[in-house]
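Support case: beta-D-fructofuranose complex. Customer-provided input:
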Amino acid sequence: MKLKTIITSILCLIAAASCNDRKSDLPVQGTIDENGLYTATFTASRNYLLIPSYYKRGTNKLDIQVNGTSIFEAIPVMTVAKDKVDYFVPIEIASYKGKTVSISITGVDPASLILSQARQSDCIGFDREEFYRPQYHFSPEFGWNNDPNGLFYDNGVWHLGYQYNPYSVMWDNMSWGHATSTDLVHWENHPVIIRPDALGNAYSGSAVIDKNNTAGFGENAIVALYTSAGEQGQQQSVAYSLDGGYTYTKYEGNPVISSTPEMMTQRDPKVQWIDDKWVMAISFDKYVRFYGSQNLLDWEFLSSICANDFGLPDWGTWECPDLLKFDYNGETKWVVTINADQTGPNGVRTTLYFIGQWTGREFIADPLPYPLLLDYGVDQYAGVTYGNTGDRHVQLAWLTSSPWPGSETPATKYFTGGMALPHDIFLKDGGEHLILASVPAKEIYEARQPAKELGLREAGTLEAMLDNNSGSYQIELTFVPKSDENFGFKLSNSKGETVSYTFDQSNGEILTDRSKCGLQDAFPKSAHCPVVAKLIKRDAYKVELFIDRMSSEMFVNDGDCVMTNCLFPTEYLNTLEVFGDVELISSRIFEF
Ligand code: FRU
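Agent response - structure generated as follows:
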């Protein structure tokens, strides 16, 4: 084990131990009046206020006042426990110690368990190490996350903002959470950077380093552009950071792009400097629009593209767009990526891309057989790239996971979501045409432990791949098919739960079948089963499979194919079976 891993494990144990010690918890005495208004007043003396809650989208409005002033710019909603407690919402009150804190929550059942269970505590009230907690991917400590936001790289540090609900494990109260990493594998959590305000929730967006102070906030200010989603529709706002991205101040002239009656759903601005101006790609219903600016504050509309332009059907709103410049064998190429929010080719939300040219005002696509999918899996979405990485494109996407709306048995308890592995993306010859290839970011390889040889040479079964299996590892298999038959491999556990990966050479498909792999209620009902990807025919197939408790990310032949899917086996998968008429050039396993 690396020293860093040992230290992290010891710190986790200490944190977990102190969190089991509930003796110093202080009950919060409150009352519920005849209108269902819960109120309580106390002197803050612990780190957290713990409010009992359960799995249901929030409707109770929460206000917290400190010495008579609300701590919120916009009142959040949450779900207060009635007769069962699924989890406790931890609200940080450490900075108010010694002060008078008053809570009020609307619409509370008169017999609610909040009366007996609300308390102050020095710990967050749960064990971070739950069964499906990813070990080498980002996941929020508590709460819900969706899209990555405001991604930028600065002096060895990868900043990750993300759509975050701090008050529930379901979507709501959209704020920007914040974490940083120096290796794209271990993430450190930081306080929320952008919160909802009078203009609405803080939806997705991006951040740039304003090296030449074009906006006037200061040289090297980090400037975030995000969507304020409120009663006046979706408008674009600016916040800036003068401490390298750890705290932000909202621009007083917000919004910088206002909504109009025809333009109520414009969102997810992705901004970068191209040649002579800032260029914004932004979602507008079924379009992506482009705007230009000299100062990040005044924006001019340039052009737009939509599904119709590519002969594609209506797959809902085109969310979280990105515009990327690549060098392909000395030729400049541009790529637009978009996220179609409804049933795409794989039955669920999907990331599509278009390859072409950027003229400075508009994107002209090459004639290619669209739709082209960046990832054939069904559990990644809203991916965008990091800013300030030079010619390298590092893309990060939301790992969408349980619980889905209507899911009775959410697989994860204190958090929902996470991020997929960061990918290096580049253009590659895909046989028939250019493709946008995705491979694990190079830092992932650097963070791995040395390989262990599995020693399989042909189809066969390996009963236990790891002695101390914690559900997180990477398998690398290189196959040479000896005939045109189907081949592939399966992972299973002692309960017989199995996920299979089949290379169907005659139909040119790769299939992931997770229908017998543990909890099923967690999966989106509309996702195709098995999940199907295009197989680009080669003589040999190098498969890199990353399993991290609840996720399966398969990369084939350095970017030919990527499939990101969630899995919820009820015991960690540990047995490998290879099938088909194949020779195995190598079979290895890595831990992190
Ligand atoms: C994509 C998305 C974005 C929006 C955000 C809201 O998942 O719908 O378009 O900004 O999530 O959380």
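The mean pLDDT is 93.

Case will auto-close in a few days if no follow-up is received.
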